[in-house]
Amino acid sequence: MSASQWRRAMSSTATAAARTAAPAPALAREPSTTRQGGADTAPRLLARIFAKVRPHHLVVLLAVLLYPFVASPFFTYQIGA
Prior knowledge:
mainly alpha
């Protein structure tokens, strides 16, 4: 497919989709009860962070922390850096 064909296909599809697509609904946000204009308090912020931590994140963190202790100095300084 040539570049001109690709541009023609992209522009015709985008304009047709824009004409027929309904506007996206606004996302509802829960009302803020903090004094800082919606900023999370520390416990809520930590809860949100730890809710996204999965087991593979912990495995990678453990590997990164143990790497300097189990690797040779060559790998630590030349490859690891």
